[in-house]
Write a structure and sequence with these properties.
mainly beta, seven-stranded mixed sheet, four-stranded antiparallel sheet, 11 strands
């Protein structure tokens, strides 16, 4: 089992920056990918950024060049540096981890952290 706790959300003016953190605990050695999703009111949850074992990353087109995902294996932390924030970045941001153990693939979600960007 993996527990994910997000932090770092808040209210920011357009053009500002926030650093979101996701602290993982439990069976973290079985995590094969971990990343950030977001969900705005009335919209489906969407991938923001993801990082796999080995370090390869994926980003949504809408955040490329503005957001950066990083992982600290020793501290079991995954950070999302968000720069040049836009009002359309307003959403609840969730951390998600994928674990693979004994051929069983599972996904785990955090409770989310609200990011609100004012114009």
């Amino acid at each position: 089992q993996v527990r994910l706790v997000e932090s770092g959300g808040g209210l920011m003016q357009a053009g500002g920056s926030l650093r979101l953190s996701c602290a993982a605990s439990g069976s973290t050695s079985s995590i094969t990918a971990i990343g950030w999703y977001r969900q705005a009111p009335g919209k489906p949850r969407e991938l923001v950024a993801n990082i796999r074992d080995g370090g390869s990353t994926d980003y949504a087109d809408s955040v490329k060049g503005r957001f950066t995902i990083s992982r600290d294996h020793a501290k079991n932390l995954v950070d999302l540096q968000t720069n040049s924030l836009k009002p359309e970045d307003t959403a609840v941001y969730y951390c998600r981890a994928i674990t693979t153990r004994d051929r069983l693939v599972q996904q785990w979600w955090g409770q989310g952290t609200q990011v609100t960007v004012s114009s």
